[in-house]
What we know:
Residues 89-318 form the Double-GTPase domain. By secondary structure, this protein is α/β, with parallel strands linked by helices.
Amino acid sequence: MAEVETQVRCSKADCPVASGGGCSEGYDPIQSCPYYGRTADDDVDEGVAGFEDRERASSVDDDVVPLASGEALDGLEVDVFLRWRPATFVTIVGDRDSGKTTLVAAFYDRFLRGPFADHIFAGSRTLVGLEKRSHYARADSGRAKPDTPRTSISEGLSYFHFAVRSVALPAPRTDLMLTDRAGETYRQARSNSELVPQLTELSQADRVVLLLDGARIADAVTRAGAMQAVRQSLRAFLDGGGLRHESVVQVVTTKIDLLERHPEQAAIRDQLTAFKDRLVQSFAPRLASLTFWDIAARDPDGLYPPAYGVEPLFRNWLTPYEVTVAPAVLPGTLLSEFDKLLLRTPLETLP
Length: 351
Ligand SMILES: Nc1nc2c(ncn2[C@@H]2O[C@H](COP(=O)(O)OP(=O)(O)OP(=O)(O)O)[C@@H](O)[C@H]2O)c(=O)[nH]1
Ligand SMILES: [Mg+2]
């Protein structure tokens, strides 16, 4: 029993954490160490230690062993990944500056601080990419306020990989793929639904997270445009086939720190409520689910904790969506008492 616990807690063979001591890599808390919570098996075929093994081997013979870059993955690399592990896909959509990359970076930073939503970070194929997206938010970038590098159109579609494991050990690991793309591409697609089929991340998604930019909502001049952008995106994605009856869509208002401190907070809340009601009326019947969430991924003034509001979203991503299938409408008129019995039978008792 003790042996199982040892294997699960740290994948470094010589690390004292495995026997109840401190982290040999110097991480504090120990959960932020990329080796923590991993099994030796994890490191054989992927992750930080696996990457280091390949790096060492490649210095011996560069032609034989491919070197994993740790950068964000593209579609082909994700296909290779899926050959050996399933993953849950979270597609993050939004206009320029709406907060897509910051959400990914904040999610990563939150895991580096320790367990998040009863889960620990169990490795990533894209550590270098995540570090680059997080750098401007750190003090050593020399910036007075945290920031995020802009995503350019030429980067195309990027996937960021997170392997997470429940703190209730031993527990199976879950692999999440979070997407990122330049907001400009989404702006073009919502103006022209013929471009939607090129957004392959929509049909692949287990969750489509559509960002409503809180900074634009906070400004009376840009407010209507920000709401219109979300509405237009939903319409274009549905018309262009990117979203379907099976799609689970989460409209997430970002930068909520700017709204909850706003002098017109109450009026804005009323406008948002009316807007969401209209979205539900227009689009909910065409989707599996349409829900609304609020986050402040990274309040630059630090009044809201990092990744504020992201925890319930993350828990939702980890929970497989149960599709409730509506019973087929029975054709014809039901005349006999036996037929009518069908109408009186509770749905859950029907085969
Ligand atoms: N106040 C506040 N600002 C935020 C928050 N999240 C992100 N921002 C800021 O919003 C700006 C845009 O964020 P990005 O994550 O780069 O937006 P994006 O959607 O990736 O934009 P593109 O890459 O251009 O498509 C940055 O200056 C962030 O610092 C937040 O929770 N609160
Ligand atoms: Mg970006």
